[in-house]
Design the sequence.
């Protein structure tokens, strides 16, 4: 069998493994290198038989100022010679890396897939096809294994997967039909069909860990253990089969625990095996960021310890993500996201009573005298009822101060406000922003959480003071008064 025929047979089988049906519209991630050039030429050869619609999409990362434009022009020439529509996108990756304070490699990956996702969406394509081959898979497995990865790491790349673009709501399907095709077959195929691919000089640099594995480690391993690369690729397949079962179990538990897109109920994970909790956290992190790059075992261990420990705390994770654990929920948020339902800190200001006090953020705290309702308890933590005698007091709206003490409804002793926050499960990141209704003598209401004992409605009261917090996000407290 000729190299040409062998390569096309492997690619044809790979299209089936990647679940790419006949008649699909595909966006090829096209660098112009040997792998993507062989992929593009191979798809062109199979296009009539499989009725494929193909677009070559090139992303100029502007990393190598001297050659990036030349690479783009070279990729365009190859696509034109193959009769394939060519689209190029230019992105200033170094600037993105500097702004987001992430590595060049991560910035390139995120921006590249974001650009390709836009093209895929605009063309209503099945997904993005990449030139990842069997050698890439072997390198990935070895790299992950050397870092102590579990099944997820050694399962390597999938033929067909959904990638979430970080810091966006975009999901993109990534298709890898050449995971069983050796790199040397790609090179030979390019030679047979007359393609002179672009050679990226950085691939020969040992400044990158993956290049060291490709250039030094794998050749030695193959010399010591013949066909070790193939064995590593088989290991990925075997691990992926086992992982399918585990993922099914993990996803079921995450579905039960999920209360918001990236927030989960703590009570639903209580009592689960630590190993299952670990995998749930990994899956939830991946769901939030779109990948688990740079997330290492110490990060995972810290997340598990935090989840099984005290609430109201958070830790910072790679890729600009915070992991937080509150009293009832835990979850992930990207740096810059604000999950606090309260407005930013305010300067103390006199409250209108009766009347409504509006803050610059549009949040309003109202206080009025109304006839006593039949039921003082309310399921709305934004509302509470207090003694009408507050009319004789001067009310103030503020945030917490050092030394604050508070007598919660139903309790005799006063407690430190800090201790109350801890006991009520108020996230630490919210505490400086919680609104407090104060008087000249004592705190009246921790808005959204608890009324003070001294300000409660008495049996003889025919009227009450109604406090209401309007315009704040979400359900503030864990209970209402």
Sequence:
């Amino acid at each position: 069998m000729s190299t040409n025929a062998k390569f096309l047979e492997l690619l044809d089988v790979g299209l089936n493994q990647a679940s790419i049906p006949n008649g699909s519209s595909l966006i090829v991630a096209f660098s112009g290198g040997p792998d993507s050039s062989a992929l593009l030429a191979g798809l062109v050869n199979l296009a009539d038989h499989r009725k494929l619609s193909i677009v070559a999409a090139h992303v100029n990362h502007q990393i190598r100022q001297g050659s990036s434009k030349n690479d783009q022009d070279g990729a365009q020439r190859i696509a034109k010679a193959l009769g394939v529509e060519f689209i190029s996108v230019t992105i200033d990756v170094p600037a993105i890396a500097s702004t987001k304070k992430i590595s060049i490699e991560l910035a390139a990956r995120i921006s590249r897939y974001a650009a390709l996702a836009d093209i895929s969406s605009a063309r209503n394509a099945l997904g993005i096809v990449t030139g990842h081959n069997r050698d890439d898979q072997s390198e990935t497995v070895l790299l992950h294994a050397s870092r102590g990865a579990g099944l997820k790491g050694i399962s390597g790349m999938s033929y067909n997967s959904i990638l979430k673009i970080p810091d966006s709501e975009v999901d993109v399907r990534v298709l890898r039909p050449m995971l069983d095709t050796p790199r040397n077959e790609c090179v030979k195929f390019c030679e047979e069909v007359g393609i002179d691919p672009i050679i990226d000089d950085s691939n020969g640099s040992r400044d990158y860990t993956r290049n060291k594995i490709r250039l030094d480690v794998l050749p030695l391993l193959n010399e010591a253990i013949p066909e070790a690369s193939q064995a590593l690729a088989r290991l990925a397949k075997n691990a992926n089969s086992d992982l399918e079962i585990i993922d099914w179990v993990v996803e079921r538990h995450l579905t039960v625990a999920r209360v918001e897109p990236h927030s989960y109920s703590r009570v639903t994970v209580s009592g689960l095996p630590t190993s299952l909790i670990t995998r749930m956290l990994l899956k939830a992190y991946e769901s939030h960021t779109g990948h688990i790059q740079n997330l290492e075992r110490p990060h995972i261990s810290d997340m598990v310890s935090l989840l099984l420990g005290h609430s109201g705390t958070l830790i910072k994770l790679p890729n600009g993500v915070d992991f937080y654990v509150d009293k009832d929920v835990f979850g992930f948020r990207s740096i810059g996201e604000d999950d606090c339902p309260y407005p930013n800190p305010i300067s103390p200001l006199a409250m209108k009573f009766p009347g409504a006090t509006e803050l610059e953020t549009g949040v309003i705290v109202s206080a009025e005298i109304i006839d006593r309702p039949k039921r003082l308890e309310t399921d709305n933590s934004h509302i509470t009822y207090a003694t009408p005698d507050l009319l004789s007091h001067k009310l103030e709206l503020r945030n917490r101060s050092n030394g604050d003490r508070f007598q919660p409804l139903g309790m005799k002793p006063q407690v430190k406000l800090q201790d109350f926050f801890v006991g009520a499960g108020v996230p630490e990141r919210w505490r400086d922003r919680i609104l407090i209704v104060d008087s000249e003598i004592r705190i009246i209401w921790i808005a959204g959480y608890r009324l003070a004992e001294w300000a409660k409605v008495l049996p003889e009261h025919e009227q009450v003071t109604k406090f209401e917090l309007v315009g704040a996000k979400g359900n503030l407290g864990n209970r209402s008064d």
Remarks:
- Residues 349-470 form a domain with the Phenylalanyl-tRNA Synthetase; Chain B, domain 3 fold (CATH 3.50.40.10).
